[in-house]
Specification:
Elements lengths: L52 E5 L4 E5 L5 E4 L5 E5 L12 E4 L2 E4 L3 H7 L13 E8 L2 E9 L7 E8 L7 E8 L15 E4 L5 E6 L5 E6 L12 E4 L6 E9 L4 E8 L7 E7 L22 E4 L2 E2 L5 E13 L2 E9 L6 E10 L5 E3 L14 H4 L1 E7 L9 E2 L1 E5 L4 E4 L3 E6 L3 E6 L2 E12 L5 E10 L4 E6 L1
Length: 469
């Protein structure tokens, strides 16, 4: 199982909810039982894995991030990474035997899927590699679920599976899992971006899909093959600016499944979103009660484009996966330093507020540990980012604020703040109430040091980040 044991000691915060918002089904949460451990140094290595899907291999005791264009990176600790396979070097994952189709060299093992999909080989819509693979181990076999499409924006797509005795291959024995090439249904999903999850009863599922076709969930058997024909259940509606890169994880203490997606265009307004459900097959709703299977623009916004003073731009955070490590949750995503710029992989901690909504660390993971800190310890100067609402290409700059010991916030933004049980924080700025947690992190600029941070969400599901100066 990819996520390993469930995180029992989840995090919490106090939050003011919009009138009438139901808390039905929300379980009680607890606080950490030790102080926050601030990191002593920053993340030291950077690798390139687009659309990263994280997998922990018990055999090698390493984390592997598999991505689009055949890229793979590994890590012992989610901090230091090794580029195992650079894109587009598919010969590292397959036998090396190739087949040329429409002038493009493909792994021989994928010939059946390539011939079905017939990818466009030239022009701006060309697709010459597989997309967004996910590795899952069943018994002694590693199975890589990959996607292939006829071209950018083309719904003639397929999800296939190959297998290996080793996590890095060579992979072979191709099987097509689901495809939309031969479908006569004009509303069929785009069969890309597969991710597997076991539910609380041990049943295996695959979540997949993107954009106008929406996000779907399909049940698999114990061997990782479809239980029945068809596309499955629609979890998140699609539109022209639709969602992609779905990932589901389950928090046992909260009693919720969380569905994370990336929304918008990768070259402009890409952002990370989340909704939740008590059942794996939905319905999934956001903090406002919006059912995302009906409204594609729903979901709490976890992160958009931003710039924390002195640390450079961070844009297009998304197409993430999630994993639990030592009782803490981590998001693994790609990040770019400018619109249409290059990308790199990052791990960031994920926390939960009192009502069980995820909030994301403002900083890349550098070894900080989950814990508590008093208001006296955390009072001080912060760079504050109020993330843009909805779909926005704006790179939001941070502003300087003081979180004062008397519970006021002054500076570029004014308001109040308070802490409860040395972990949960309520912040009110400009009449908007945000509920979040205190956490630690490593700030790279203007000087490298461990700092306290606040991460929170509003009653409208918009993110607020505060990074200690």
């Amino acid at each position: 199982m990819k996520l390993g044991k469930f995180f029992v000691s989840t995090l919490a915060v106090v939050m003011t909810f919009a009138a009438g918002l139901s808390l039905a089904g929300c379980k009680g949460v607890s606080v950490p039982d030790a102080p926050i451990g601030l990191p002593a140094s920053g993340a030291s290595t950077t690798v390139a894995v687009h659309d990263p899907s994280i997998f922990y291999d018990n055999t090698s005791q390493k984390y592997y991030a598999f991505g689009t264009h055949y890229a793979v990176a590994s890590s012992d600790d989610l901090i230091n990474w090794v580029q195992e396979v650079s894109e587009p070097n598919w010969t590292m994952l397959y036998s090396g035997e190739s087949v040329v189709i429409n002038g493009v060299s493909w792994p021989k093992e994928l010939e059946e899927t390539v011939n079905l999909v017939k990818p466009i080989s030239t022009g701006e819509k060309a697709v010459t590699t597989t997309w967004a693979p996910d590795v899952h181990k069943i018994g002694n076999k590693y199975y890589m679920y990959y996607s292939l499409t006829g071209g950018f924006g083309n719904f003639h797509s397929a999800i296939g599976r190959v297998e290996s005795d080793n996590v890095l291959g060579p992979y072979s024995n191709n099987t097509i899992i689901v495809e939309s090439v031969t479908s006569s249904d004009m509303f069929s999903p785009n069969c890309i971006d597969p991710e597997l999850i076991e539910d609380e009863k041990g049943t295996l599922w695959m979540v997949y899909g993107s954009f106008a076709g929406g996000i779907y969930l399909k049940e698999l058997d114990d061997n990782g093959l479809p239980v029945e024909e068809g596309f499955g259940t629609c979890l998140w509606a699609g539109d022209e600016e639709g969602v992609e890169g779905p990932f589901i994880f389950y928090d046992k203490a909260q009693g919720y499944y969380y569905l994370m997606v990336s929304d918008g265009s990768l070259s402009s307004n890409y952002n990370m979103r989340v909704a939740r459900s008590e059942k794996i097959d939905g319905p999934y709703t956001d903090i406002k009660g919006t059912e995302v299977s009906l409204y594609p623009d729903g979901g709490n916004k976890l992160a958009g484009n931003y710039n924390i003073a002195g640390a450079g731009n961070n844009v297009a955070l998304g197409h993430n996966s999630v994993i639990e490590k030592d009782g803490e949750w981590f998001v693994i995503c790609h990040v770019r330093d400018r619109i249409e710029g290059g990308h790199h992989l990052e791990a960031r901690q994920l926390y939960f507020n009192k009502e069980g909504w995820p909030v994301l660390s403002p900083l890349r993971y550098a070894g900080e540990t989950n814990g508590t800190a008093t208001a006296d310890e955390t009072a001080g100067e912060y760079d504050v980012v109020v993330h843009s609402e909805g779909l926005s290409a704006e790179i939001v700059p941070s502003v300087e604020c003081s979180f004062n010991a008397d519970g006021t916030v002054s500076g570029a933004l004014t308001g109040t703040w308070s802490m409860e049980r040395d972990y949960f924080v309520t912040i009110e700025l400009g009449g908007v109430s945000y509920s979040g947690t205190v956490c630690g992190g490593w700030r790279t600029a203007p000087e490298g040091k461990g700092v306290y941070c606040f991460t929170a969400t509003s009653s409208d599901g918009n993110a607020l980040w505060c990074v200690g100066r």
